[in-house]
Write a structure and sequence with these properties.
alpha/beta, elongated, 8-stranded parallel β-barrel, 39 helices, 8-stranded mixed β-sheet, 48% helix, 16% strand, homodimer
Chain lengths: 960, 960
């Protein structure tokens, strides 16, 4: 039964448009960067604070010692920071008071020409009064001034992407009051000069850098230090800083052409608009596009009373995690610095102390922090990231949020929390980003060595992180050389402009693959991920010269045999060697698959988690594999069958390619059958290996798919060599290559079109499959379960013709072998027409497997090999929210899948549905597959754990 | 309002599958040709004549002097021949009695392993008894034998495609009886030897030809004539013929390994099965596939009592038409031959007499024939094709069917019948196959000269009849040479392996285009039809050598400047020159468009018919054109606007291509704008010309579509030449060409993707359009109506970005020019994703134009440029009932169009819908467009009259 097919799928499909509508209102594709534009506009239209609030909607939420208007459930409205500050107040924790302007204000601001809801100004005035009362200070009071910070805070954390203004409320008068009330003149003027700089940069648009890449403020500071002959900021005294404030104000006037505002209320209005404006600065936009955060979520703005960690030795500031964010170990972890503000910790001029030191130096504070961190973790039931400040011995919590963690920590923490009975298994499963599991599976560079390499300037360039992991090796420029060197025991990298099926053996032999062209689903990327190879693809500034067997990058030249190192997780390319090691989890999983025991803490957690996932999920997880060793690996990783075995990959094996070429060059059906007869035993042996590895798990085998020219050599030299081998005139081979050349091979003579024009090829392949299955059944006592899949079907008639061949040959073989094998015949749904006529096609097919790679190419009319020229521009312009070759495009491709699923099941209720495109290993796509009621997803071996987890999450989500 | 959208479109979509289901049951893709297989099977399982009829269904229908069981409405059941024989009986006309086995018997026969419905045998026996009574003869009676013919007859006429057996019932005994009753021994034995040969060939499978290409029967006849030293069959006497019968029977025994059946009943059973079997002989299958006749219609079999035209001088046979089938003139037209059987007329050994001769020789017969032909034409209300036999002075009607006619005759007869008040205007419009109008529009070879050329063996080869008409000219192998020679006043043909946009000027200069590669919608075919050029495409056995400037075909070589002649209506290629002339209608239409009067009888009829069509149709008809002269022609042919103006065609004009190349080679946005500034006035002048030609008719202009590499030279020499022109290093141009090269250009960086990555191109084009429109408005007092169309949209966001540019530039130009132009902005729907998300896209688009060429390519995943390698096999295997590039594929592409129309209209009720793919000129597709509720179709100028008629037919059909 399909699980809530229609409703979920259609709601998913509908969700997108409204999202993009929202976005489209906000984005102006203009040659000016959005940041500068909105910043200018923001300062032009600050919050009006005079009009009364009339709307029924609440835009402002207070928080403080007496509790809060909001709570942690209101992240969408208050942003993460605002919601958690409110929540901590509700828990009675010491939080400086403040108020939050909601994300709806942000949306209103952009939807109404950068203006604010009526009455908001009055609400802000009232909230500031509340702050004054709570802090017993007055905003702008020359004697005892209240200072505030103005901070951004989106629904999800976007660290460092948006702007913040600290120490707001200082002017030439209040600075004196602050000095008096703090009893520290230097502190007050230091706060003031920092505020003038920050405000000038964030609100007044004074560029942080001039044409020489230096901030005019830093320049002035440096000049002053030189004049005073001191090296550190702290060596400047109060008078120095007083002078600096005047210098900074002069800079602001010169650059922004208006004077620095002395009125604290004007400061506040300007800062709020600037922080809302920073939602659309360039780096925030980029970060959102990289992290799939919709543009219309908006940010909230929190205005918080300032507390100071730099008032003296009884003040300080720190950050901490309730568990180790790297390993996941259960220990309070963090660091602090006395007599410092937050930015000092970051600046790294002084070395912070580990948090445990507090136990000795301030046992009371330590106990309070311990109480708070436990309370917060128990309250949030997850590892928390805390920021605190100590002002004259009093602790203030400034922030609390769910802590970022490594994949290792994510797995361990989730398992530990279940054991501690803090969360359920389902919750544990939902806590982990499936992609984070990649970290547990890929080999890594030795971290220290990596640091050293970077410091030594060995980072050459970077490209697409197409195959995660780390690899070092000798550079080779063709498959033969890679195979040769690997045969000698060398570790090699295969460097190609782009790869083709001819390179398969070379890719297999290499540790990693580096290409100058192609995207995340280029041939190189696809095969690399399936093989579990490291791959950095599409490195545009790589100039490869095959003739000279060399590459150049930014003027540096590397010849054959020289060393490069590839970090497929980051896409970085390094000069020379860096040591790597396979991940612990991978080794343990593989050894356990082989019957051995092993693995440490992380593997134990990982295994427990996978077990829970397997209990929950309804989708089966298969693998795309076509070699027995790949199959074994996949089974160790949890594969429940093969969803796609590409028979053509086998064609490139030793002894095979010659027969394949003979077949292609055959001039008659008879000659072709002769060549095919040579291929038969070779293919049969391939299939025997696969059936043995897979036992009684289903094995979906696709008949020949790629255009035949891929199997022929293309360079004149290679053609001459082949001619010599086959005893044919080179001209004839060249003619055949020319004849097979197509303008658009993707839309050409391939897939079932080969099997229809050369039925003898299908016949040979099917014969090899059934002979292998019968032999394995006889010798292993296990019954192989072949599922034969016909590619690139557009019409029912095509499938009918191929199915007839399969059934005829099956009967012949069963008769010859004296035994029967249960099998299925089905088709890939990889052309729009197949999806649109699925009701007809299902009459011939026992299963459908969605080939979403090709389906995406034809639905969009985009060749993934050629998309590199415009996709970057598309991503930048936000035309494609996700790469449709990574995550299924729901409104287009998803709609076709929905049509095909419904019409197919209507025509044949027991139709088995699966997916074998690259999307089968991508969590969002897996969720959609679950909602569509598919029976299985299929992905490359290394993505199986990810798919198992994602399938479990989809099942849990559907229950919610 | 859409016209009965859902119901009709979906019923159309459903019609196909059931049809193919029927067909699929009948076809076995086997290496043996279907014909021989079914023939063997047929003789293995003749009609069983013993079982009684039990089914409630009626399979056998009698006809004779006392009326008939059927009538003319029952063509689907009785076949055309059977239905019309029954109808003539009902009209009381003299028809030999007989009976018809329905097409349902044929379907049953194929659906049940070549066996017959229970009881049919008994029905046949009863019907034979009826015949005996009517004819007062007995089947198999040695004294007064009844003879019958066994004839095929499908729902539509398939002349000569299926088998017939005459004189059935003769054996060694009955031949004597026939001799006696006819009083003519030679006649009887002549009938017998013909019967033995025909039966042996048709039923017993004795090959009509041996390995030397000669029939063993003809061989024996020739030997006998040699022995007797006579030259004509009629010089052989009765004894000669007696001997020949024995020889023939011996041949049958030797080849078929069984003796010739003497039992008349066995003969009858065998003949019926053989005729049903002939439905699936190779030539019938080919004919059906060429004429879009479904395989599951089946044939009926009529068994008719023999009457003889060769009993002596008072006997005879003839064929006649109620009007002239060539010219359509209203005159009784035909020929006859006394003392002859039908095949003698065909054999051409004796010259038949014109039918008017009967008036003198047999005035009574003439009067009767006159009465019958008038009666039949009035009865059928259409021109009839009659066959008759005179047996001893008595007239028998053997066949009556609607007569085939030329396009000229079709138009004239339809108009005349309206004037004679025999049919309504709607009926007249429905009578004419829109494609037949092609004949009226295309230049033709002088018929006599053509005959002579064929007789002289000047027919070299043939290919696809891609652009109708006739052309002779000097062969040229590149555009430059074609232009050069044409400039000198020579008539030239452009011969290319395939054409590309670079060849446009050469194609324009040539009389005709000949290509070795490409299908009916290849670039050559497409552009040729739009230009109205003769085109023969995809001539596989043409070997073109550009280097040597020569072509070879079947060993004959032609160099540059030699003469060839192309018949684009038949696809034939001739050596040397053959004179041509433009069609009368075309000349008249064009001159009248220019204000002159003219045109003869045919043109008058054509014009009247077009007027009726225009009154009836609801679809507007636009044209695909991009030159002012094409526009003028199209308007003369009745274009109501431009549906597709391809701006890139203009890019190849003189002076323009240089600027285009400069733009492509520009390294910065600034350099590109500089080059575009040069192009702007050139494009503006192009658009001015078009707006002037089109007046206030809407003009849909598509922004730049093809990949940029199409505008660059590719050969090293051309690259060097360009480098010299531009003062750039050749290497840089070569690099750019390399960089722009794509694996699948069809799915690459083209369409709106160009306008998005280079918005300055869109901006320049839109500026040129609006400047041109403003200038034409100022000087001509007519308001141009530009409709700007963005190609290859896949997502709403793409369109939004391009629409914003169009509107911005429009406002700029309107301000500069001080006047406003009304315009629309819309998009092509040519990718599946655009159709699937049409509801979203419609929010940005004021119109949709279905680009069914690309939509078909992506929906099927078939590149029309590369399809040549498998489409022939597909047509042969009946996988594609129609070429989807010629006629819209309803279940796939049609379904997408339906989704897009419905979702688009739902989102924007005033959305204007049209089509500009090649399908816009194809009648079946036009019908679908009407049903879908489109506002217009757009096609090449020469297809406009066809589209006008097809649109009228669609409107009439929807009313029925």
């Amino acid at each position: 039964m399909a699980r809530s097919k229609t409703s979920t799928a259609s709601s998913a499909a509908q969700a997108r448009p409204s999202k993009t509508t929202g976005r489209s209102k906000k984005k102006t594709p203009s040659k000016k960067p959005a940041a500068s534009k909105s910043k200018r506009a923001a300062s032009a239209s600050p919050v009006s604070m005079t009009e009364p609030s009339r709307g029924s909607r609440r835009y402002l939420f207070n928080f403080g010692a007496d509790g809060a208007d909001g709570d942690r459930e209101m992240k969408n409205l208050l942003g993460g920071k605002g919601a958690n500050l409110a929540e901590m107040c509700n828990l009675g924790l010491p939080v400086p008071p403040g108020f939050t302007l909601s994300t709806e204000v942000c949306r209103y601001y952009y939807d109404h020409g950068l203006s604010y809801p009526r009455g908001l100004g009055k609400d802000v005035l009232a909230a500031m009064k509340r702050l004054e009362t709570a802090m017993q200070k007055k905003f702008g009071d020359p004697d005892n001034p209240l200072l505030v910070s103005v901070r951004s805070g989106a629904r999800v954390s976007m660290p460092g992407m948006m702007d913040t203004v600290l120490n707001l409320g200082l002017n030439d008068e209040t600075v004196e009051g602050l000095a008096r009330s703090a009893g520290n003149e230097r502190f007050a003027w230091d706060a003031y000069r920092r505020f003038v700089q920050m405000y000038s940069e964030v609100v007044m648009g004074v560029g942080a850098e001039d044409e020489h890449g230096q901030s005019p403020f830093s320049l002035a500071l440096e000049e002053l230090k030189e004049k005073r002959a001191v090296s550190l900021d702290i060596d400047l005294d109060a008078d120095d800083l007083k002078g600096l404030v005047q210098t900074f104000k002069a800079i602001a006037l010169r650059v922004a052409l208006r004077s620095f505002p002395e009125d604290p209320m004007e400061q506040l209005r300007g800062a709020i608009s600037a922080v809302f404006g920073s939602w659309n600065n360039e780096r925030a936009i980029l970060y959102r596009s990289m992290n799939d955060i919709p543009s219309d979520w908006g940010t909230a703005v929190s205005v918080v009373a300032m507390v100071f960690g730099n008032l003296g030795t009884t003040s300080g500031t720190g950050v901490a995690f309730t568990r180790d964010p790297a390993s996941g170990e259960k220990r309070f972890y963090g660091e602090y610095l006395m007599n410092a503000q937050g930015e000092d910790v970051v600046a790294g001029l002084r070395t912070p102390e580990p948090i445990e030191r507090l136990k000795e130096t301030s046992p009371k504070l330590w106990r309070e922090l311990q109480r708070i961190q436990k309370l917060l973790e128990n309250h949030y039931r997850d590892m928390q990231d805390l920021e605190f400040t100590i002002e004259n011995g009093k602790l203030y919590m400034l922030q609390c949020r769910t802590g970022k963690r490594t994949g290792f920590a994510a797995v361990r923490i989730a398992c530990d929390l279940v054991r501690e009975r803090k969360i359920s298994r389902d919750e544990a499963l939902m806590r982990i980003d499936p992609e984070a599991l990649n970290q547990l599976l890929q080999p890594v560079f030795d971290p220290a060595e990596l640091e050293r390499a970077k410091a030594a300037g060995r980072l050459l360039t970077s490209g697409l992180n197409a195959g995660p992991g780390a690899a070092s090796g000798h550079v080779t420029f063709n498959a033969a050389e890679a195979v040769r060197r690997a045969g000698e025991g060398q570790k090699v990298l295969l460097v190609r402009i782009e790869t083709s099926p001819e390179d398969i053996e070379g890719m297999q032999a290499a540790e990693g693959i580096l290409t100058a062209r192609g995207g995340m689903t280029s041939h190189a990327a696809l095969v690399a991920r399936q093989m579990g190879k490291v791959c950095v693809a599409g490195v545009a500034d790589l100039e490869i010269n095959y003739k000279a067997s060399s590459l150049q990058v930014h003027g540096r030249r590397f010849g054959e045999g020289e060393f490069l190192s590839l970090d497929g997780t980051t896409g970085e390319v390094f000069e020379g060697q860096i040591s790597t090691a396979p991940s612990e989890v991978m080794q343990a999983m593989f050894h356990e698959g082989k019957g051995a025991r092993g693995g440490g803490q992380i593997y134990a957690s990982f295994k427990r988690l996978m077990g829970w996932a397997d209990e929950v999920r309804q989708l089966r997880v298969r693998t795309n594999a076509d070699q027995p060793d790949q199959c074994e690996l996949a089974v160790a990783f949890g594969a429940e069958g093969i969803g796609l075995c590409r028979t053509e990959h086998m064609f490139f094996g030793e002894n095979k390619i010659e027969a394949v070429r003979e077949m292609i060059l055959a001039e008659s059906s008879e000659a072709r059958e002769l060549a095919l007869a040579k291929l038969l035993p070779l293919q049969r042996a391939d299939f025997e290996g696969i059936f043995r590895a897979m036992g009684e798990r289903p094995v979906t085998i696709r008949t020949l798919d790629p255009p035949l020219h891929e199997f022929l050599p293309h360079s004149p030299a290679a053609i001459r060599a082949l001619a010599k081998d086959l005893g044919l005139p080179a001209k004839r081979i060249a003619q055949k290559v020319e004849q097979l050349t197509e303008l658009n091979p993707m839309l050409g003579h391939r897939g079932c079109r080969l099997g229809i024009t050369y039925p003898e090829i299908t016949r040979m392949q099917v014969r090899a499959i059934f002979q292998a299955a019968c032999r394995v059944a006889r010798t292993s006592k296990k019954m192989p379960r072949p599922e034969i899949m016909i590619p690139l079907i557009a019409t029912r008639e095509e499938l009918q013709l191929q199915v007839r061949i399969v059934r005829e040959v099956a009967e012949e073989v069963f008769e010859e072998e004296g035994r029967r094998i249960k099998y299925l015949v089905g088709t890939m749904i990889e052309l729009p027409r197949a999806a649109l006529t699925a009701g007809e096609i299902a009459k011939e097919a026992e299963f459908f497997s969605f080939g979403t790679n090709d389906l995406t190419q034809t639905t969009f009319g985009i060749s993934r090999d050629d998309a590199g020229k415009f996709i970057p521009a598309y991503r930048k312009l936000d035309i494609l929210p996700d790469d449709p070759f990574s995550s299924i495009d729901l409104p287009g491709v998803g709609k076709l899948m929905q049509i095909a699923s419904m019409d197919g099941k209507a025509a044949r209720p027991d139709l088995k549905l699966g997916i074998c495109g690259e999307h089968g290993g991508e969590p969002k796509s897996i969720r959609f597959c679950h909602e569509l009621g598919l029976a299985y997803v299929s992905c490359s071996p290394y993505r199986i754990p990810i798919a198992r987890l994602a399938a479990a999450q989809a099942a849990i989500r559907a229950r919610l």
